[in-house]
Amino acid sequence: MMQGSIDIEALNQQIQIESAFVDKIKEASAEIIVGQDYMIERLLLGLLTKGHVLLEGLPGLAKTLAIKTLASSIQADFQRIQFTPDLLPADIIGTMIFNPSKNEFNVRKGPIFSNFILADEINRAPAKVQSALLEAMAEKQVTIGKETYKLQEPFLVLATQNPIEQEGTYNLPEAQMDRFMLKVDIGYPTKEEEKLIMDRVIDGTTNKKIEPVVTTKEILRAREMVNKVYMDDNIKNYILDIVFATRNPAENGLDKLKNLLNYGASPRASINMAMASKAYAFMNRRGYVIPDDVRNICKDILRHRIGLSYEAEAENITQEDLINEILNTVQVP
């Protein structure tokens, strides 16, 4: 089957081979984490698209464990940074240290110089510290003194935050929220899953060491394959229709949302939705994107990029409610 100059059948066969590690990572994660398949899948989406991921959920839902398990399954460097109110930017990116024996300053690199960065409870640190991540997240580089240092690939910031704690926390500004490709809401496990969690904790299974099942070289190669996944212009227009509906709902047949949206999604939403859709198709062994791929990842791309009006908040309407309304209204190609 040909699409323009692209041989979809040959691409599908290649992706079947290149995506084999996805199942290996899922199987390795399942040995430690019960349930939370959705969270693991979203972390993999970020990994395949260079997209940073923000996990939001109540304490004890395996957010930190999931990120550590993913890093352990890959032959890559991993650093965990516990964000606290007294953290300084230098604690993340590094600083200049004076060497009296040589009478000169030397660079001491911070934990940001790793493949995987776990920013645990990111909203506990003040804005100055949060902004220290911005250059690294956006430009994949860090400036210390007068020198700029490139970060090694793959580089991924995986952050967690608690949605209910307000005391001693600092809300992430919209500019930094927009740097995260995905914002994933984590829910409670089922009763059966929680029983299995209890059993595993009691018998020590959660302390099991995970052996790497994939190399960073394989991840970088997979990213190249994700970029090759075919996306038809109809799918691109579908993505744009969804994003533009968040900015001008009245012009897109959504008059009732006009007074509920304070601001719409940025162009990063369109870019990230296209990239995540390709990665989702890759993970499902397909060389082309279908509308269901877009719909599947849409909420995680948009929920932190649209602002609710006071009227929406007063009526207890959530971002997810508005996204559902948009998906139900925008015509599917």
Topology:
Elements: E1 2-3, E2 6-7, H1 8-18, H2 20-30, H3 37-49, E3 52-56, H4 63-72, E4 74-75, E5 78-82, H5 90-93, E6 94-99, E7 104-109, E8 116-120, H6 127-139, E9 141-144, E10 147-150, E11 156-161, H7 174-177, E12 180-185, H8 191-203, E13 214-215, H9 216-228, H10 233-247, E14 261-263, H11 267-283, H12 291-302, E15 307-308, H13 310-314, H14 319-329
Parallel strand pairs: 3-11, 3-12, 4-13, 5-8, 8-11
Antiparallel strand pairs: 1-2, 6-7, 9-10, 14-15
Helix pairs in contact: 1-9, 2-3, 3-4, 3-11, 9-11, 10-11, 11-12, 12-14
DSSP, total strands: 15
CATH superfamily of the largest domain: P-loop containing nucleotide triphosphate hydrolases
Shape assignment: globular
- Based on helices, strands and strand pairing, what is the structural class? alpha/beta
Unreliable parts = none
The quaternary state of the protein chains shown equals single chain
**Proportion of residues in helical segments:** 40-55%
Q: How big a fraction of the residues is strand?
A: 15-25%
**Major sheet: order of its strands?**
5-8-11-3-12
Compute the number of helices: 14
Class of the largest domain, according to the CATH hierarchy?
Answer: Alpha Beta
Radius of gyration: 21 Å
What is the makeup of the main sheet? 5 strands, parallel
Distance between the termini: 20 Å
CATH architecture of the largest domain: 3-Layer(aba) Sandwich
What letter string, H or E per element, gives the SSE order? EEHHHEHEEHEEEHEEEHEHEHHEHHEHH
Mean pLDDT: 85
- Number of separate structural domains: 2
| CATH level 3 topology of the largest domain | Rossmann fold
